[in-house]
């Protein structure tokens, strides 16, 4: 089963309008159509339209970092799937560990967002991952399983293959500490086995599982070379054209 590698840049709450447009332009100029690697950038929601305009006609897709799972209405400060689509998004990151930790997002909320994303024709990138304390107390698999089952609750088999999972050990995000390729592959293989139990083996083989956590040009090739690692969700290194493009080229 060949799965198309997916490299996504999560800009988090960084950039300004002009700098974001420049960054997007640099990436768009450097990335051509590639049947084996797909590229996504996820700017702050306020800049989605502007970055989308820059990416128009390029091989780079636009993604959002979150959504609110309701139709239009009285939800001050929130943005829904229809608005993201209207702004040119094809992808949406859900359940990033920063949202889980800082904003208290729960698996139940993430599963609602997942349903809203799919109903709105967005491709969800659902993040899971353990903290250092979880890992050191031998709870990595339990935590990842709980998050995965909870976040994908209600997802039907027919739509599962279109969902992207991002395994992001919290201790490796923005810390410069990367999981070794072996550590990452071990959890990715575990996730794929679980997906096989939750859906079917066929579906699990089709689903893409990204690794995230201090992916850089110098570690990308080895990580992406692991059999169950189908891409990368990149934070810090996605803010520099050269670094992000080097990671894409490693895919
Ligand atoms: C992330 O934001 O999802 C991430 C993995 O960040 P970084 O690459 O900076 O660790």
Structure description:
With 251 residues, this protein is α/β, with parallel strands linked by helices. Helices cover 44% and strands 17% of the residues. It contains twelve helices and eight strands. It has helices spanning 17-30, 48-55, 81-86, 97-102, 107-119, 132-136, 140-151, 157-160, 181-198, 201-206, 217-224, 241-250; strands at 5-10, 37-42, 60-64, 89-94, 123-128, 164-167, 208-212, 231-234. Strands 1-2-3-4-5-6-7-8 form an eight-stranded parallel β-barrel, surrounded by seven helices. Helix 1 runs parallel beside helix 2 (48-55), helix 5 crosses helix 7 and helix 11 (217-224) packs parallel to helix 12 (241-250). The longest helix is centred in the last third of the chain and has 18 residues, at 181-198. The model has no long low-confidence stretch (mean pLDDT 97). Phosphoenolpyruvate (PEP) binds at residues 10, 12, 168, 173-174, 212-215, 233-237. The site of phosphoenolpyruvate has 14 residues, from strand 8.
What layout of secondary structure does this protein have?
Elements: E1 5-10, H1 17-30, E2 37-42, H2 48-55, E3 60-64, H3 81-86, E4 89-94, H4 97-102, H5 107-119, E5 123-128, H6 132-136, H7 140-151, H8 157-160, E6 164-167, H9 181-198, H10 201-206, E7 208-212, H11 217-224, E8 231-234, H12 241-250
Helix pairs in contact: 1-2, 1-12, 5-7, 7-9, 11-12
Quick recap of the structure?
With 251 residues, the chain is an alpha/beta fold. Helices cover 44% and strands 17% of the residues.
């Amino acid at each position: 089963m060949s799965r198309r590698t997916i490299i996504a840049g999560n800009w988090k709450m960084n950039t300004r309008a002009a700098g974001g447009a420049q960054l997007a332009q640099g990436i768009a100029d450097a990335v051509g159509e590639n049947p084996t690697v797909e590229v996504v950038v996820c700017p702050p929601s306020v800049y989605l339209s502007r970055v989308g305009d820059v990416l128009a006609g390029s091989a780079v897709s636009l993604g959002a970092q979150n959504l609110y799972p309701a139709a239009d209405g009285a939800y001050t400060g929130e943005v829904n799937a229809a608005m993201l689509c209207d702004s040119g998004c094809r992808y949406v990151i859900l359940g990033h560990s920063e949202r889980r930790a800082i904003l208290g997002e729960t698996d139940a909320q993430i599963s609602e967002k997942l349903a809203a994303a799919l109903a709105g024709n967005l491709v969800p990138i659902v993040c899971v991952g353990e903290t250092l304390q979880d890992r050191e107390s031998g709870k990595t698999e339990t935590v990842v399983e709980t998050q995965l089952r909870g976040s994908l609750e209600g997802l039907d088999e027919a739509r599962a293959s279109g969902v992207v999972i991002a395994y992001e050990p919290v201790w490796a995000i923005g810390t410069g500490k990367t999981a070794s390729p072996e550590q990452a592959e071990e959890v990715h293989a575990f996730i794929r086995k679980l997906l096989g139990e939750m859906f079917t083996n066929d579906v699990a083989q089709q689903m893409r599982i990204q690794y995230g956590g201090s992916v850089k040009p110098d570690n990308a090739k080895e990580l992406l070379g692991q059999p169950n690692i189908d891409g990368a969700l990149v934070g810090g290194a996605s803010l520099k054209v050269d670094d992000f493009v080097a990671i894409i080229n490693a895919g």
